[in-house]
Amino acid sequence: MTDPRxxxxxxxxxxxxxxxxxxxxxxxxxxxxxxxxxxxxxxRQAAEEVVALIRAGGAMAHAVQGDAADPDxxxxxxxxxxxxxxxxxxxxxxxxxxxxxxxxxxxxxDFEATFATNVRSAFLxxxxxxPDMRDLEFGRLIFLSSTxxxxxxxxxTAYAGSKAAVVGMMHHYAASLMPWNITANAISPAFIKTDIxxxxxxxxxxxxxxxxxxRPDEIAEVAxxxxxxxxxxxxxxxxxxxxxxx
Length: 246
Known about the structure:
It contains 7 helices and 7 strands, in the order βαβαβαβαβααβαβ. The protein is α/β, with parallel strands linked by helices. The protein has a single domain, classed as Rossmann fold, CATH 3.40.50.720. The protein has a 7-stranded parallel β-sheet, with helices on both faces. Helix 1 packs parallel to helix 2, helix 1 packs across helix 7 and helix 3 runs parallel beside helix 4. The two termini are 28 Å apart.
């Protein structure tokens, strides 16, 4: 297998990477030898802690603040990332929010905020890095969806809808970018132990599939596989311990 880090393909950008799944993916790709740009919105300390861990392991990393849903911020973020480590060969669209609400309490404000963070951010970041991937004739686009896209989930109408939109967007990129050796795939987790579930009433652990919640590092293992596999594109990988089977 050709090492995807060759020919200046060594740089990964991960949005929302100061915590949770994004953090775990950043650490996993760093262990593979990739230079990592950590994007964060507010928690600089947490982002710098991830950078420190990566550097302690011998890889390169830096943190760049920016709202991934804001076009100007994304342009600045990608510019700073390129300046630090060169063209971006791997993009993990991980930035996301989930505001819990009942179906009777849905608001337009929550809907628009959720789609901005979960969908518009992925579009903006992807469009910003595509010139790099086209020039490299190589790219890995990874989108974080959710089993809620298929089942409705337990968070909100907006959350389920936004995660379904991410899958549709991924399909279009996958179908359109094959001539440039750019793959696009989605990871669709359920009940991963992150702060998105804080305050949400979940079933007791013994009633969950496999009797426990998943770990962010288990999602990171799937991201590693996507990065190294050049023969897979347009796929949504369900990681939910059997809660939703395909």
